[in-house]
Structure to design on (764 residues):
């Protein structure tokens, strides 16, 4: 199974993909995860590859081999479409953060829904920022998306909760668990 | 026990298991987390940030001479800074195991070049191990210490961004006790006078011959015989890519990749029909294979530039092609200076004074991008001051406004000698030190100006103005970069000064809970905004142009620089 998580530096992709990797380790898979985080705090595009199976060699996903793409920002989703398998699933957070050329009024923010639909019909849009606002914490958007993603994966909820318990502490842990559950519920809707 | 660790965390764990005593480094992507992990998780090891990589390696050499196991960690270009000690260190007697970690950056994710530091192993005549996973990163680090002590040589562990920053499952091992350091004298092996070094050189050559024999039977050089129509020699992450796309091929996987196992290579080549060398960047292995008189494919089909991917390896070996991918022409999202970053103010002030701005290595290099377009050169750590001096000397006095910008950490790293040179040789360039009291680009590491060590102890907090004056600069002013009008005025004044001038632009990095910014987003009164776009010239990620007016988004830090610039008083809120 190959999963890509995309977004913008500072959105919490690295934490979310760390948790996913830990869950798959506990579930019993070989797992590798790769991302580039040199500039992660500087607002650039960020992408994390997570691969799990009985045996994983490459830490990065080949073109047209991604099973699920999870993206916390709309235009970031469209950057990785050539990684998707024909029947891949895509989870998109309905959120637009203007790239510099859009902010300066040079480019229009593109509508990406049609681009995704050309690739696959399994697209799920989530209003992650609204859910995060209802939890009074804008930084848990990726945990909400992780909740949505978890409904498509084998491990049951208890393994995820166990990972939140061991990897996070105090109030941060509590709000992330609530965000994760809210994500699972959002998918059910 | 199984853990999921990044390559960098695994190297830190390996150092702990190997009984390392001392760890030294200057932060640099993708190597930084090694020392951070050691300091956080393994306090038994004394870990320190040094001002630069040369210092790191020389401190490491000292610790080794005292009999301690020691690890010095740096990014690929950091090894250039440490190259002076590195090239002579193998001449000297290595007492406690000494391991140099070089973290290379193929694809230049966060670097100024993509040099292949495997060449340093050959250049310095030291053995090198190349892990291809986190498990190997840990195990090879331990083995590197064993080899170092057995052969009395520094050993290089070479990783790349994909190894350092990828997470894999690691079976952790037992932790070894540290040896007790003692003071001994070995002047005939430690004092590199010509007469002594001349005697030591043949010892290195003889050692390399013994290491070649050792490499031919080493447990980390492995032949994986399978289908023999294609045989692949590979190391590092390239091995994983090749294994991914050609699981049925035969492999010669090199863990101890220098000196190369010549006999093993000959034997492997004789067993396969078509021989390939799959490696990132330079044809380091390929050239040695060819020098053995063996025909092989490699860089005739694989790229010299950038990192490899499974797709690139598959297309090269199987002569396949990727499906034409559709180009969507999406607006790019390059990294940018943060909302509220103090660098923005001083770069704007230099720009408004029409300066040529020699840049350096740090977040401020991102000021190169439009709309600021405020960086005119960037070469390597500490180069900016010297660029500015060279340009002004070439043009002659008073011909152009030449300035250099350099961060505080970069200034401590290698700016001091440049500024001393500028003062000594009667330079006229303006030097601006962007003093944000941290090493921001690599994620906020401490340095000699922060008052705290890597281990969290209180220490000196170098006063920048005193330091600059001590180097012979008489005109020194400290300014607040958030006060744009004053910054612009001070730059003008400094440029008018006949001799060398230094401005210290002093404000903490906005990521360090700066008290200079309110954290409350400002608002634009759209009735007052006339859409002049002056505020947009700052290139702040929080300001957007929507429907003919400026708009401030929720990422605004409330720094107020844009408020200072607005001639129509359209920007309101608490600063």
């Amino acid at each position: 199974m190959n999963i890509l998580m995309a977004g913008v530096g500072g959105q919490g992709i690295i934490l979310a993909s760390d948790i996913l990797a830990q869950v798959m380790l506990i579930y019993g898979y070989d797992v590798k995860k790769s991302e580039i985080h040199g500039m992660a705090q500087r607002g650039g595009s960020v992408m994390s590859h997570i691969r799990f199976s009985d045996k994983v060699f490459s830490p990065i996903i080949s073109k047209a081999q991604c099973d699920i793409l999870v993206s916390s920002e709309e235009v970031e989703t469209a950057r990785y479409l050539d990684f998707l398998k024909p029947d891949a699933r895509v989870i998109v957070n309905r959120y637009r953060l203007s790239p510099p050329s859009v902010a300066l009024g040079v480019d229009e923010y593109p509508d990406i829904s049609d681009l995704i639909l050309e690739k696959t019909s399994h697209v799920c849009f989530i209003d992650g920022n609204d859910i995060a606002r209802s939890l009074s914490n804008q930084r848990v958007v990726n945990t909400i998306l992780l909740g949505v993603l978890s409904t498509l994966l084998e491990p049951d909820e208890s393994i995820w909760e166990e990972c939140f318990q061991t990897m996070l502490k105090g109030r941060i842990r509590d709000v992330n668990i609530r965000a994760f559950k809210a994500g699972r519920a959002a998918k059910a809707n | 026990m199984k853990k999921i660790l990044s390559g960098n965390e695994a190297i830190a764990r390996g150092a702990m298991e190997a009984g390392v005593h001392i760890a030294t480094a200057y932060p640099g992507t993708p190597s930084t987390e090694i020392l951070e992990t050691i300091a956080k998780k393994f306090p038994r090891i004394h870990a320190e940030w040094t001002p630069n990589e040369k210092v790191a390696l020389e401190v490491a050499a000292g610790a080794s001479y005292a009999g301690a196991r020691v690890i010095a960690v740096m990014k690929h270009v950091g090894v250039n800074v440490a190259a002076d000690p590195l090239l002579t260190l193998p001449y000297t007697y290595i007492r406690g195991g000494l391991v140099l970690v070089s973290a290379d950056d193929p694809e230049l994710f966060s670097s100024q070049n993509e040099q292949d530091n495997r060449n340093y192993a050959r250049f310095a005549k030291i053995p090198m191990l190349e892990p291809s996973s986190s498990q190997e990163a840990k195990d090879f680090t331990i083995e590197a210490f064993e080899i170092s002590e057995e052969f009395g040589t520094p050993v290089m562990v070479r990783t790349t961004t994909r190894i350092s920053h990828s997470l894999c499952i690691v079976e952790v091992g037992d932790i070894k006790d540290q040896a007790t350091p003692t003071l001994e004298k070995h002047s005939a092996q430690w004092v590199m006078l010509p007469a002594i070094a001349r005697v030591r050189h043949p010892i290195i050559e003889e050692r390399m011959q013994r290491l070649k024999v050792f490499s031919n039977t080493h447990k980390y050089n492995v032949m994986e015989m399978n289908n023999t129509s294609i045989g692949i020699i590979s190391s590092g992450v390239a091995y994983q890519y090749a294994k991914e796309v050609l699981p049925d091929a035969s492999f010669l996987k090199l863990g101890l990749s220098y000196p190369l196992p010549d006999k093993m290579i000959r034997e492997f080549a004789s067993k396969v029909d078509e021989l390939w060398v799959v490696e990132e960047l330079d044809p380091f292995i390929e050239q040695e294979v060819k020098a053995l008189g063996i025909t092989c494919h490699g860089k005739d089909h694989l790229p010299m530039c950038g990192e490899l991917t499974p797709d690139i390896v598959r297309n090269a070996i199987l002569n396949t092609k990727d499906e034409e991918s559709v180009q969507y022409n999406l607006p790019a999202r390059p990294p940018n200076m943060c909302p509220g970053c103090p660098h923005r103010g001083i770069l704007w002030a230099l720009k408004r004074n029409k300066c040529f701005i020699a840049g350096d290595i740090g977040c401020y290099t991102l000021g190169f991008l439009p709309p600021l377009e405020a960086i005119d050169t960037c070469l390597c750590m500490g180069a900016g001051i010297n660029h500015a001096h060279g340009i002004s000397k070439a043009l002659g006095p008073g011909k152009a406004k030449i300035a250099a910008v350099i961060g505080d950490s970069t200034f401590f790293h290698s700016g001091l000698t440049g500024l001393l040179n500028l003062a000594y040789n009667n330079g006229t360039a303006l030097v601006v030190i962007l003093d944000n009291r941290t090493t921001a680009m690599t994620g906020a590491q401490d340095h000699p100006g922060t008052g705290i060590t890597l281990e969290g102890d209180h220490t000196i907090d170098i006063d920048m103005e005193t330091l600059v004056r001590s180097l012979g600069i008489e005109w020194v002013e400290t300014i607040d970069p958030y006060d744009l009008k004053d910054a612009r005025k001070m730059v003008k004044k400094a440029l008018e000064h006949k001799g060398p001038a230094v401005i210290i632009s002093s404000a903490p990095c906005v990521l360090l809970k700066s008290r200079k910014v309110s954290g409350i987003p400002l608002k634009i009164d759209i009735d007052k905004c006339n859409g002049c776009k002056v505020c947009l010239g700052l290139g702040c990620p929080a300001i957007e142009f929507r429907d003919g007016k400026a708009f401030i988004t929720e990422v605004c830090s409330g720094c107020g620089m844009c408020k200072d610039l607005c001639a129509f008083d359209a920007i309101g809120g608490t600063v």
